[in-house]
Amino acid sequence: MLIKKPLSLTDNDVTPKDDFDKSRTIISSSRRRFLAQSSSLMLAGGLAPSTLWAGNKIENYVSSQFSIKEKPTPYEYVTTYNNFYEFGTAKGDPAVRAHLLKTKPWSVTVEGEVGKPGVYDLEDILKRQQLEERIYRLRCVEAWSMVVPWIGFSLAELIKQMEPTSKAKYVEFTTLYDPEQMPGQKSRTLKWPYVEGLRMDEAMNPLTLMATGLYGEEMPNQNGAPLRLIVPWKYGFKSIKSIVKIRFTEHMPKTSWNESAKHEYGFYANVNPQVPHPRWSQSRERVIGAPLFTPKRDTELFNGYGEQVAHLYKGMNLRQFF
Ligand SMILES: Nc1nc2c(c(=O)[nH]1)N[C@H]1C(S)=C(S)[C@@H](COP(=O)(O)O)O[C@H]1N2
Ligand SMILES: [Mo]
Fold this sequence. Notes:
This protein has helices at residues 4-8, 17-45, 49-53, 75-78, 93-97, 122-127, 155-162, 200-204, 256-260, 306-309; strands at residues 61-63, 107-112, 118-121, 131-139, 144-154, 170-175, 195-199, 209-214, 217-218, 228-230, 243-249, 284-287, 297-298. By secondary structure, it is α+β, with helices and mostly antiparallel strands. The chain has a domain at 62-73 and 102-313: Oxidoreductase, molybdopterin-binding domain (Sulfite Oxidase, Chain A, domain 2, Alpha-Beta Complex), CATH 3.90.420. Strands 1, 4, 5, 8, 9, 10, 12 and 13 form an eight-stranded mixed sheet that branches. It has a five-stranded mixed sheet with strand order 3-2-11-6-7. A hairpin with a 5-residue loop joins strand 2 (107-112) and strand 3 (118-121). The longest helix has 29 residues, at 17-45. The structure holds the ligand Nc1nc2c(c(=O)[nH]1)N[C@H]1C(S)=C(S)[C@@H](COP(=O)(O)O)O[C@H]1N2 and molybdenum atom (MO). Residues 82-86, 138, 140, 175, 194, 223-224, 236-237, 239-242 line the site of the ligand Nc1nc2c(c(=O)[nH]1)N[C@H]1C(S)=C(S)[C@@H](COP(=O)(O)O)O[C@H]1N2.
């Protein structure tokens, strides 16, 4: 029953407590079924969870110079302890419900201050990208983290091919809006669709990844299939999932979490142990999947990527621009 652990741990949840408890009650029976089924199958057949839930293998990716040298969080934690409010607010909801999302075919609309706007088939986008495996730590604003072997391509390469105009100062990303496939969108937990944004220089930084998979497989739906962002020096909520639109803009885009609670979630959202969230400290983080009683780890400024990204914020007051 190893996999029961991450789902039953509590958290400093960003959801108002009532909503959180409500959603837990609703899904608890299906979650129990899900756990019972997977663990008994594992016992019976000696199957690893990755065999149970395997997606298609990704071929032709290289390993990245940007990977951190740390042991990845086990697959079953990475794929069952998720934040994806389109499928509910409890950590176990996305793994239970995200099969409702149809990820093929998938198209991405590119618009705004850009030379090559259009509606692109994801297949066609991928034909022009070099896929890499990059082991990154994802540090969530709720003060936990995990290490994931993502597969994806450099956002900077895609942006160059789209030829942004000189007016493009920001990039805005939008998640699919379809309450039939994403039942969490029937609740007003956030303003839908989920929107995130980056300053152009952040988007062009070589660390910024458009991810299409993890652990050698196509992205599990609960992790944001078929295309999600990973910005490893920022809190997890910047890493928007299931992207259908990329818009280049002159002005700073409005982002979902900032709109929902602007004193709690800034536009920048850089990982910073010295700037607490109004309701909890950011100085340490719980390591998902670590053995019981493992101490929390110290959170690093820019999640450890200071050398690569600190220059982007030179002269800025990081308490003001949090
Ligand atoms: N569309 C969308 N993207 C999202 C979220 C979400 O609710 N909806 N949650 C964010 C948050 S808060 C985190 S911590 C990460 C979690 O990614 P993971 O489930 O792959 O670990 O996804 C981010 N991307
Ligand atoms: Mo998060």
